[in-house]
Structures are given as C-alpha cells and as structure tokens.
C-alpha cells in the first residue's frame, strides 16, 4: 500500500478530487464574471431599433399592458397614454417591478419583476417606436465615478426635500411617498430623473446635465457604501427618530436613575 502511494507521487498524477476542485473554481469565476458583465452588456445585445425586437415587444405589450394602456398604447381610463414615454420610462417601470400594477393605489409599488431583462427591453423598444421620448441612459453616466461633492450638492438642492438628505425616503401627501434610493440600480436612478415617474418631477438635460446626473448617482452610491461615521443612523429620517430616541431612552434613563437614587437614600 505504501509502495503504491509512493509510486503515485513519483508518477506526478493528480489526486482524483483535484479535477473536481478546478472545475468548481472555474464555474464560480465564470459565474461571477457573467453577473458583473450582464448588467452592462444586455442592452448592447438587443437592438432597440430592430423591427423584430419592436414586433416582439408589441406582442408582449398586447398580452400584458393593453388592458390598461390601450391596444395601441393610446391610454384608457385605467392607464395613461404611452406616446412619448420613451424606452427609459418602460425600462424603469417594468424593470423595478412597478408595472404591471398589483393593485390600484396612490402609486406603484416596487415588487419582484415579472419579465426578463430581454422582454423588458423589447417592450421598451416598442413604446419608443411610437413617438420620441427619453432613451435609455448611456453606460458612461452609470459608472459611479463622477464628482461626489458636486453630486451631493445637486442632490440636496433638487432631491433631498422628498428623498431625505441621506436618501432614506420620506412621506408625501395622500398616501404617497418618496422611496429610499439605497440599493437602486444606477440605470433606474438615471431613468427616474429623465422620466419623472409618479410624483417625481422631470429633470431634463436642460435642468440637470447628463454629467450632473452621473455626479448625483456617484453621490448616492458613495453614501450607500460608506459606513456611518456618526454612529447609529436611527433610520436616517432626521429629528423624528432622534427625538423619539431621546424621549424614550434618555428620559427613561433619567427616571430610572432618579428612582435608584431615591431608593438608596431611604
């Protein structure tokens, strides 16, 4: 037995499990590379101006969206016209799961997507073919490598009154709300700025240039990934949470200390 093992080592043959380990490592590396690459390459693989892509999108639209938006996307009492909505609006609404609506309410809710990225882009191509509208953002503005300081200033001036200075979101009127912006894909942040979904105003290139939009995205990704240097954020919703903490914890501690001192003095 010992001689067999010695001969195996001398022959230079690999252990039987070595091949399995190499294959497993290769699959992990390939999967990680594909996950990072697919987000940026999916749009490039689909020609939004192709008649075939537009036709596929029209079929998907007719089967899933026409009930509310009309057979020709002209709009109905249950849904607005999509003429001029552009590819960016479709990619945002469908890509975040807001559309199709789960139920009628003050605004569409984020939920698991019902369509693949390819199907979403096909529907976006169809709607974009109906009339000019906001196009999908260029990848150069989605890298998160813009001017963070300028992005922070722009965000505080234009966005913080609804989304909170820490992008934690906030309540609006009549059951509406501005959603938190952490964990949102750069593509969807950009698309929201150029399309103005639901309660949000439209920030055209005349208001905020594409590079300034890239700076805002860079700021949002910075505050999302950086740790809170001030300690507990308490939800980052401002004085309401901080005041509640002071009253409940701070005042409770004072009362407890008072009771303890009184009991000791007796």
UniProtKB/TrEMBL annotation:
One Gene Ontology MF term: heme binding
EC nos: 7.1.1.8
PTM per Swiss-Prot/TrEMBL: Binds 2 heme c groups covalently per subunit.
Annotated catalysed reactions: a quinol + 2 Fe(III)-[cytochrome c](out) = a quinone + 2 Fe(II)-[cytochrome c](out) + 2 H(+)(out)
Membrane topology: Multi-pass membrane protein
Sequence positions that bind heme c 1: 65, 68-69
Assigned keywords, A-Z: Cell membrane, Electron transport, Heme, Iron, Membrane, Metal-binding, Repeat, Respiratory chain, Signal, Translocase, Transmembrane, Transmembrane helix, Transport
Pfam families per record: Cytochrom_C, Cytochrome_CBB3
InterPro entries: bc1_cytC-su, Cyt_c-like_dom, Cyt_c-like_dom_sf, Cytochrome_c_Oxidase_Subunit
Annotated SUPFAM superfamilies: Cytochrome c
Chain segments annotated as transmembrane: 244-263
Residue positions binding heme c 2: 159, 162-163
Domain Cytochrome c: 52-131, 146-224
Region forming the signal peptide: 1-35
Presence of keyword Heme: yes
PANTHER family hit by this protein: CBB3-TYPE CYTOCHROME C OXIDASE SUBUNIT FIXP, CYTOCHROME BC1 COMPLEX CYTOCHROME C SUBUNIT
Assembly mode: The cytochrome bc1 complex is composed of a cytochrome b (QcrB), the Rieske iron-sulfur protein (QcrA) and a diheme cytochrome c (QcrC) subunit.
Protein name: Cytochrome bc1 complex cytochrome c subunit
């Amino acid at each position: 037995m010992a001689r067999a093992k010695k001969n195996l080592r001398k022959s230079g043959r690999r252990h039987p499990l070595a091949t399995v380990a190499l294959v497993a490592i290769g699959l992990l590396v390939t999967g990680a590379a594909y996950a990072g690459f697919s987000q940026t390459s999916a749009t490039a693989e689909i020609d939004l101006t192709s008649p075939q892509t537009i036709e596929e999108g029209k079929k998907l639209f007719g089967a899933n969206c026409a009930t509310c938006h009309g057979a020709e996307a002209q709009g109905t009492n249950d849904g607005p016209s999509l003429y001029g909505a552009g590819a960016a609006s479709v990619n945002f609404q469908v890509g975040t799961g807001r559309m199709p609506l789960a139920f009628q309410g003050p605004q569409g809710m984020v939920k698991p997507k019902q369509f693949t990225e390819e199907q979403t882009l096909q529907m976006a191509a169809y709607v974009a073919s109906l009339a000019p509208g906001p196009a999908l953002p260029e990848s150069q503005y989605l890298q998160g490598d813009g001017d963070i300081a300028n992005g922070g200033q722009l965000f505080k001036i234009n966005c913080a009154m609804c989304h909170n200075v820490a992008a934690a979101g906030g309540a609006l009127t009549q059951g509406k709300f501005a959603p938190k912006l952490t964990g949102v894909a750069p593509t969807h942040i950009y698309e929201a700025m150029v399309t103005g979904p639901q309660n949000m105003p439209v920030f055209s290139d005349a208001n905020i240039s594409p590079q300034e939009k890239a700076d805002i995205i860079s700021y949002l990704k910075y505050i999302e990934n950086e740790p809170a240097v001030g300690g507990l954020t308490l939800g980052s919703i401002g004085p309401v949470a901080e005041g509640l903490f002071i009253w409940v914890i701070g005042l409770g501690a004072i009362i407890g200390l008072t009771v303890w001192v009184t009991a000791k003095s007796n």
